[in-house]
Structures
1.
Amino acid sequence: MTETSTTHAVLPVDEVAAAARELARAGRWQRALCLLDATVTTEPRDRAALALAGAQIALEHDWFGGTDTAGARIAAADRAVDGLTEPVGRWDLDFVRLRHVYFRLLLGDGTFRFGPAGKDPAELAALRRRAEELCERAADDTRRGWARMYLGLIVDNLFAERDEAPAHYELALRAGESADDLLAREALRHLGDHDHDNLDHDRARERWTRATALGARAGNVPGTLSQQMLLSVLARDAGDEPAATALATEVARWAGAIGAVRVEAQATAFLTGTDPTTVPETEA
């Protein structure tokens, strides 16, 4: 149990963390973090749970909002988890750390940098091993599915082993179908990307449309906007430039309104003719 510092309302810590995650999915990252920071508890396990939620939310904020706050939150969660007599939350924190490194290697100086060029081979190999280890250590199918999803992303986007990635995404999709809309959405998004690259636009549309609906059902506002960008791409591919422009314009407007600056920049670039699904020649 936990309580707020001003009104002393008693709440289960799991409910506070869940509410913060829901706020974050709606793009209310700062409000979510304020809720966690305002929560007072004397229980070490509860402090660790709140710190872990803070690290997860900060990472999402960094990804969509272009901030740089996850490192400090991960360090705080590490201290909180290490203080426990049992390694509660250790897998989840290790998974946050894996994603943090993946994002750093992919984004680099703020721009997407696909493939292994310009990256430390030893660091790439270590990250891949950590993803494989997380697959082995996962306590349930959902966690295993998320680890498999990121193993696929690492193989796909950092090693540029495009033919190897879909098998990982398929395993992630299988886990997400039964328990986690966000995991299923992520897998469908990237499987659809491979369909699009293979010029199977009907299959890509089927997967991307379903991914959009799953993200919306889970309350993932910035993720749903990024998914709608892919539907804009398909509209342009089909020769329907008015539809592509109208949808991308709204994506840019909505993303800008909630502070999802990376999605906003992608939509704005699309309106000037850039295809967000195309890997730059220098990275191919």
2.
Amino acid sequence: MLKRHILTAVAAVFSMLIVFGCWILTNELLNRQHLGLMNTVHTVSVMEPPEAELGAEPAKVTLSTQEIANILKVWQSSQTQHYHDPYDGQLTMEEAIKAANSGLSHFCESGVLPKELLESDFTQTNAFLFDVQAPIVVPPEGLPASNPAYSFWSVSVSNRGVSILLTLNAYTGQIWWAEIRLITQTLDFNSTNILDLLEEYEAYLGLSDSGSLNSNSDYATKSYENNHIGIIVYKKTGESGHYELLNFSLNQNVS
């Protein structure tokens, strides 16, 4: 009986020695790894992020007059529009909203739109990307995806007094259609000159051809490249007699 107790005690002591020894060995290994890391951490190099990742502006792209005409022909067709995520080469939602705000600011700061628009506290902002081409989720091998220039971002901003709807080419980021509606009489377009706005919009789009011009106090059109494309600018009055709607856009076959 005594012998059994002695063997049990010896086994317990031996087990404790094994556990204690493993603990010491584990700590020693961890300490060595820690020292090794501390001795080598100074050699780790940190790569500087490329400029493209530092919030650089996306490269500006342009389209020829013929390409613009082809796109407008498709946009103005009866084909069904469908919503989609950005293709390669197209603006993201964040970039589209930024381009819309930048374009609107351009016309306000140049004086052709009321500068008070920039002071508007817009409470709602929406952006949707549409295409009128047949949707290609995964293009067949060897074939390109849908042409990125044929999609458009529809960006809207509004509050209780102003509603603005802008259509941007998803590839260039330019405003190709704009409608600004004043809901209250805190602002008006009475002092907005149609011809000044047309000229500023022409410069914004990079159009310089001396095409035919037709205008009056409320409406103006100008065509380019033998009437392939043109600009239309107009404003309308509301029930109060104030100009409460302003529209400027690119269109196909303007005469």
